What we know:
Blueprint: H1 7-17, E1 29-30, H2 35-42, E2 49-54, H3 60-68, E3 71-75, H4 82-88, E4 95-98, H5 107-114, E5 119-125, H6 131-140, E6 147-153, H7 154-160, H8 171-179, E7 180-188, E8 193-194, E9 201-208, H9 219-231, H10 237-240, H11 248-257, H12 271-283
Parallel strand pairs: 2-3, 2-5, 3-4, 5-6
Antiparallel strand pairs: 1-8, 6-9, 7-9
Helix pairs in contact: 2-3, 6-8, 9-12
Amino acid sequence: MDNLTNILTIKDLLSRHGFTFSKALGQNFLINPSVCPRMAEFCGATEGVGVIEVGPGFGVLTHELCLRADKVVSIELDKRLMPVLEETMAEHSNFKVINEDILKIDLHKLIEDEFKNMHVVVCANLPYYITSPVIMKLLEEKLPIESITVMVQKEAAQRICAKLASRDSSALTVAVNYYSEPKFLFHVSSGSFMPAPKVDSAVIRLDISSKPRVDTKSEKMFFRVVKAAFAQRRKTLSNTLCTMGISKALVNEVLDDVQIERSTRAEQLELSDFAKIADAFYERGC
């Protein structure tokens, strides 16, 4: 279906299908015609590529992905959108929609079943309220995917793509950099959506690394350290790492051994610093 960004087309779909936007599901559908073609190009949708899309809405981005990729599988939680997508995506034989929760679905099985012999990428306009959980699921499950291109709240995009060891870095920044190389692509104004959110958005791409970007003896310990270090980011590592249930004496001993000042804060650390601290704790049986 053409003109999926046209207000009159959208209102007609809303009326005929009795659809109303759900605030609980964070539904803000794109009406800026220039955004989705750019996202589809940036994500690498092309011949030989299969795309997983999260939250297709009325199919504005989906349409652009289907024009370029070999196959597009969209995961949509809202069952009310099933008949809408059946209509708007009717021309695309390479499209499939699955009415499931992205946070619960078995993505390894989906990729195995749907994308044999294809390169796989993820492309989505993510609802703000599930941005971090979705991104972390896609990264932590170590899926056979090459990249994740998503539109998220501008503030979240800046946090994810922040430089490590900077005031803007966070636990999410560290986690994303552990698994991938993040890139900030472009801004998207709030007026590009219907209904318009109160904040602007941005599109980012995470290029998945073939292996973690830092070596560590225990991934579990690495992320325990990261989470604890950023839990109270204004406090020093000497204090925050004690929240892991480790004595302050041992925390200070470890920091001294790895040559990191006790007064250092989480936002001052590189990936390698977190790895050194985590390995030292792991070697001590923590």
